[in-house]
Amino acid sequence: MADSIPLNPVRKSSKRIGNYSSARLSRFSLEDEPSNLDEMPLMMSEEGFENDESDYQTLPRARVGQRHRGLGWFLLGGWKVLCSSCCDCLAHICWRKKELKARTVWLGCPEKCEEKYPKNAIKNQKYNIITFVPGVLYQQFKFFLNLYFLVVACSQFVPSLKIGYLYTYWAPLGFVLAVTMVREAVDEARRYQRDKEMNSQLYSKLTVRGKIQVKSSDIQVGDLIIVDKNQRIPADMIFLRTSEKTGACFIRTDQLDGETDWKLKVAVCCTQRLPAVGDLFSISAYVYAQRPQLDIHSFEGNFTRDDTDPQIHESLSIENTLWASTVVASGTVIGVVIYTGKETRSVLNTSCAKNKVGLLDLELNRLTKALFLAQVVLSVVMVALQGFVGPWFRNLFRFVVLFSYIIPISLRVNLDMGKSAYGWMITKDKNIPGTVVRTSTIPEELGRLVYLLTDKTGTLTQNEMIFKRLHLGTVSYGTDTMDEIQSHIMQSYAQVTSQPSGGSAGSASSTTPSQKTQPSGPKVRKSVSSRIHEAVKAIALCHNVTPVYESHAAVNGETESAEADQDFSDDNRTYQASSPDEVALVRWTESVGLTLVNRDLTSLQLKTPSAQILSFLILQIFPFTSESKRMGIIVRDESTGDITFYMKGADVAMASIVQYNDWLEEECGNMAREGLRTLVVAKKCLSEEQYQDFENRYNQAKLSIHDRALKVAAVVESLEREMELLCLTGVEDQLQADVRPTLELLRNAGIKIWMLTGDKLETATCIAKSSHLVSRNQDIHVFKPVSNRGEAHLELNAFRRKHDCALVISGDSLEVCLRYYEHELVELACQCPAVVCCRCSPTQKAQIVCLLQQHTDNRTCAIGDGGNDVSMIQAADCGIGIEGKEGKQASLAADFSITQFKHIGRLLMVHGRNSYKRSAALGQFVMHRGMIISTMQAVFSSIFFFASVPLYQGFLMVGYATIYTMFPVFSLVLDQDVKPEMALLYPELYKDLTKGRSLSFKTFLIWVLISIYQGGILMYGALVLFESEFVHVVAISFTALILTELLMVALTVRTWHWLMVVAEFFSLGCYLASLAFLNEYFDLSFITTWPFLWKVSAITLVSCLPLYIIKYLKRKFSPPSYSKLSS
């Protein structure tokens, strides 16, 4: 969310540190008075105060966690923590990272490099040929379920433990591993292919002997590389030369920072001025570059040419850099490589996303552990009833293997296939077109969410700026009165053209009062017309916007952007800037008659309504930063020679810079309440001497290596005093389609919505109201700015007394409260119906997500559209990205990608509900399928003198888990309890899902009892009814078992689908057809007789009919909430 106006006040607190994690420790060397705190009424935990200032992190919870580390902790998972920390230590020792250092890079001389730098190869593969098999096996067997199957299958190689055929154990396990390995191998092959394509891209490298072609992976630090238009930049470079006459070019950075706007980059003056490209080798020059770091928005370095007397020094900043993975948008560029491979900004900023595991998978894992415990207990009981005779330990293990079907291996397969099916259904839903499932392992999470954390700009709003208001202090203009401004502009420029000399005199006289501010003399009041003229002119000049004209003729080489091939008409002009706000302002000045027609590094031209061209020289430009929250420009009017310093920025930054006034603060508040983003515009006229003095100091500061940013800021601040306030602008960011009904739907579903934004408090509050995030009749508690422990304590107490009100808090206050009262703040905030956090950094957004996960144990979802939302999306249990104007970075990093915010309603209410309900039913049914056959085995063994002999062998066991029951059981992924329209009409149904009642120990216990009842009936029934031969027990019980499973699927289904019916009959047909080939298990002459048919029918009826009756009675006397609605 590239908010251009936001962020925190920095002027008065230049010592502040932007990054949150470091700020928590360093920002507060506070002047708290603990003695005074004792007199306050403590309504919250006093334990926080017992701590020393430095020990603020050991809050009550953390201490409790430390206290309970005993044997229990070790057995219940502590061993994992210890093992992982030991592995981390070993890895750290073995692969100790090389310390990154600053460097001196000689142009075109890689051999002069002092150190060996990493190879410029992109490597996204997880494994290599040697590590592939061990790596994949480790990823599979680190889960309890798969490790258990491996141990059981391996036990079959021991003759004394062997039960049945080897393939009954190894075939399913081998199938699961084969599918996983093939999938991983395909992914790995794709990664390798992508890497190979990127690494073998050819680039032109300049050498003493001319141009040669090199692969991207062979580029070294110090190489001079030529990059053409629309080509990817292969490594981090310093921009030396361009084919553009202006000495600057545009690059596209959407793959690096998620922003779709083009960025203007400037070539080093010394090398750009050289007559020909080959002259780069005739000079002796080097670049000093700071050590590689994460920040893509800053760079400090120097360019030095040492073969002249005196040496030429030029300071290098972010505008002279070309980062890897960006794309050249205009002209051809030549750069010297300074960082390669792992040291490039793009690779340093690539964080490994955590491997997300769904809550349902964790719950099923817990249940399988409980089943394993039951299996061991059952085996011990069997051995105990034998009387621990003979080699009882071997018998115990044989029983464990015998009952291994309690935990079916098909559970993992069915669930994974189910997840893929849900993902396919989501992508094929015509009501939410363009939705992409990027993480197929967590679709059930969409049905369990309690907290939704959303970005504002581009997510709730369109990031499409429209100019709405111009305020001059005494008069305000809205959209309906813009024609008045237009007439004033036409009038003032008509006077200028009719009196050529009067124009400059007028502008000079209009600025004299501000220059000669003498307390005794009265101020000359300007006319409204001249004030409008000055304000519009300031807005048209003070920006970073460049007009771009598309080339009609495809011309290569140095003359690519020759003016002859370009159409300079108004229709062919588009504006490029790093902020949509600036483009909106420049478009507005065009609409009222003052048009920006041309801009390069040193000048810009405006066109008046009478088609006259006004030329201005750009002397200095101070770009917008989130710290300064303002941007400035110093221009010289070519017609008059006047030097003017224009500045615009956020009201918090500008209030102390402009001359005293009594309206700015009030009007900013009024505009913010309307949801407008405000900018304050000011100017200052400079004399030639003032400017020369400033320029000397500024250039000196720019060349310093230590604390360059602070020294430069100090010099610029010397100019920012007593500036003349010109106007206040208001730009509106429109809401996305159907944001209000969607937020209302989510709120009714019991989902708590938190808005995290970098925008200012007033704008954020206003958007929260206009989007109905906070309902009209709801109170809003604005958390006052706090800077120390005492203030935080009092403010939290004040907030605690409020009930059912929305909370609005700024990033600064949040930091202070989290430092001392983390637990208390989160506890209070979680009780609020809505929370708005404004002026949040990307790191803070991710931290808020983690706090909610730690303190509430509820599932969180983060949704955003920009590069600054990626950390929040990756930290959340479920991340949703919107493909917005800020690029695709958030959408590519997310688990689910949608095209509009309104689609989240259907994604959660319909697909989230279905995925969770279906997986819960499928998981429990597959377990039931394993438990019923294990119960039959237990009954069989107990009757036959506790012998560890299998009841069914060979193909019967494989067929039971696959072809005979697989399709009907898997068809449960098509089941739905509520129609999509009903789920969207009654979002309250979603609240039930978050309680996790579809898969709990209670529902699991019911399935266990059903399995024990049915397994007992099937086995005892078959034993009671079997005749002389044992083979009949197998025939009767197995057939009844298959029929029972098919009927149980029918009992579980809530809404029939034609594929379910097909699956039922297909499975039954497969079983009946296979009877002809199962001679070794069944007596064919017996199974075609009437006694066989009635015995099987009777047993099946007794096992299933009571359950059908219970289900009917339950639905009649205690129906679930959804069935009341559907009836």
From TrEMBL:
Residues making up the signal peptide according to the UniProt record: none
Lipid bilayer topology: Multi-pass membrane protein
Keyword annotations of the record: ATP-binding, Golgi apparatus, Lipid transport, Magnesium, Membrane, Metal-binding, Nucleotide-binding, Translocase, Transmembrane, Transmembrane helix, Transport
Transmembrane intervals: 167-186, 370-390, 396-415, 926-949, 955-974, 1004-1024, 1030-1051, 1058-1078, 1090-1110
P-type ATPase N-terminal domain residues: 113-170
InterPro entries: ATPase_P-typ_cyto_dom_N, ATPase_P-typ_P_site, ATPase_P-typ_TM_dom_sf, ATPase_P-typ_transduc_dom_A_sf, ATPase_P-type_domA, HAD-like_sf, HAD_sf, P-type_ATPase_IV
Pfam families found in the cross-reference section: E1-E2_ATPase (PF00122), Hydrolase (PF00702), PhoLip_ATPase_C (PF16212), PhoLip_ATPase_N (PF16209)
Record has Transmembrane helix as a keyword: yes
The organism's place on the tree of life at top rank: Eukaryota
Region (Disordered): 496-528, 556-576
Coiled coil: none
Residues in P-type ATPase A domain copies: 212-345
Acidic residues composition bias: residue spans: 560-569
Cofactor needs: Mg(2+)
Every P-type ATPase C-terminal domain range: 892-1119
Keyword Iron: no
Localization, UniProt: Golgi apparatus, trans-Golgi network membrane; Membrane
EC number: 7.6.2.1
Reactions the enzyme catalyzes: ATP + H2O + phospholipidSide 1 = ADP + phosphate + phospholipidSide 2
Matching PANTHER family: PHOSPHOLIPID-TRANSPORTING ATPASE IIB-RELATED, PROBABLE PHOSPHOLIPID-TRANSPORTING ATPASE
Similarity comment: family membership: Belongs to the cation transport ATPase (P-type) (TC 3.A.3) family. Type IV subfamily.
Protein name as it appears in the record: Phospholipid-transporting ATPase
Organism: Ameca splendens
